[in-house]
Design goal:
By secondary structure, this protein is mostly helical. It has a domain of about 25 residues. Helices cover about 70% and strands about 0% of the residues. Helix 1 packs antiparallel against helix 2. The longest helix is centred in the middle third of the chain and has 25 residues. It is elongated, with a radius of gyration of 15 Å. The model has no long low-confidence stretch (mean pLDDT about 95).
Length: about 70
């Protein structure tokens, strides 16, 4: 039995570009929030949740056949 949750998707050139664009969006968001929020435990959670959200955004994009090799 193969579980689809763990499937690997090889991205085509468009998928790779989209992955980079997603990273840029989250990087910009983290930079702006860093300037507004400063450091501390709560901001560490913000960074962790943004990292998690970026992962799922990329996974959502990669799941689309149009972005796969």
């Amino acid at each position: 039995m193969e579980h689809g949750e763990f499937k690997v998707h090889m991205l085509n050139d468009d998928g790779i570009k989209k992955a980079h664009s997603i990273r840029e969006v989250f990087d910009e968001c983290l930079t702006k929030l860093s300037d507004l929020c400063g450091a501390g435990r709560e901001f560490s959670i913000v960074k962790t949740k943004l990292e998690e959200s970026c992962f799922f955004a990329k996974k959502s994009m990669a799941n689309q056949e149009i972005n796969q090799k």
